[in-house]
Amino acid sequence: MPRGRRLQGATRETMKLLLVNPNITEAMTEAMAEEARRFASPGTDIVAVTAAFGTQYVENRAEAAIASHAVLDAIARHAAGCDAAIVCAFGDPGLAAAREFADIPVVGIEESAILAAWMLGRRYSIICLTPRLRTWYIECAEEHGLAGRLASVRALDSAIDDITRAKQQFRGHLVELCMRAIEQDEAEVIIFGGGPIAGLAREVSADIPVPTLDGVSCAVRMAEALVGLRPRPASRGSFARPAAKPAKGLAPELMRRITGAA
C-alpha cells in the first residue's frame, strides 16, 4: 500500500486506531484500551497490542530505549489497516522515530495530554507514581518543547509492590498530590501520567477543582482529529521516511520495513 494512501482517501465513517503498549504487562494494555474505548467516537475501533519484549513498565531512560524499539516493532507488525497509532506509555518512548517510520499519524499520550492542557489553562502539573518517572516526564516535556508552562511534576514517595494495583492502592495519595500542585505550584490543569493510573483523571474529576486529563483519552481524540484532517505524509524534511538500508537481527516485519522490502 503506498505511503499515505489511507489518509488521503479516508472518507469512510469507521476508523481504526492502533494502541501500542510499549511494556509487557497485558493487564495494563487492557486497562488503557478500556479507557481509550470510553472516549473513542462511534465507529472508531481500538486495536490494542502489547510489546513483544521489554520491561514490566517503563520508568527510566534505559527502559525507554528498549521500549522505543518495541514500539517500532509493534507498528511494523500491526499497523496494516490502521489509520493512526498511539504510543501508549507516558514519556512517549520512540514517538519521533515512529513518526519518521510509519505510514500513518502517530501520537503519544504525554504529548497529547500536554497539548490539551495548553488549551485549558496557563500552567499544568503532572502527577505520577515514582521519582524516576518524574525525571523522565520532565525530560519528555522539554524534548517536545512543551515544558514552558509546566508548573511541577509530583511523584509518590512510597514503594509500589504491584504496579497493576497502584491506582487503587494510592488513589488518596495521588489526589493529595493534585491538591498540593494546585495550592503550592499554582497548577491550573492536572495531568495524570502513566498507564497504571489510566482513567483516574475521569474517576476523581469531581474531587479536583481544576480540569483533570488522562493521556490515553487525550491521545485518542488527537489521533481521531489528525485522521480527519487527512494530512499528506512528509516527502521532505526530517520526518520523511528514511531510505532503505541493509540491517541485521531485527524481527521479520521490522526488517522488511528497514530494508525496503515492504
Description:
The protein is α/β, with parallel strands linked by helices. The protein has two domains: 5-108 and 218-259, Rossmann fold (3-Layer(aba) Sandwich), CATH 3.40.50; 111-215, Rossmann fold. It is 43% helix and 15% strand. The chain has eleven helices and eight strands. The protein has helices spanning 5-8, 26-39, 61-78, 95-101, 109-118, 131-143, 166-169, 171-185, 200-203, 215-229, 252-259, and strands at 15-21, 44-50, 84-87, 106-108, 124-128, 150-155, 189-192, 212-214. The strands form two sheets. A four-stranded parallel sheet has the order 2-1-3-4, sandwiched between helices. Strands 6-5-7-8 form a four-stranded parallel sheet, with helices on both faces. Helix 2 (26-39) packs across helix 10, helix 3 runs parallel beside helix 4 and helix 5 (109-118) crosses helix 10. The radius of gyration is 18 Å and the shape is globular. The N and C termini lie close together (9 Å). Mean pLDDT is 93; it is low at 1-11.
Brief summary of the model shown:
With 262 residues, the protein is an alpha/beta fold.
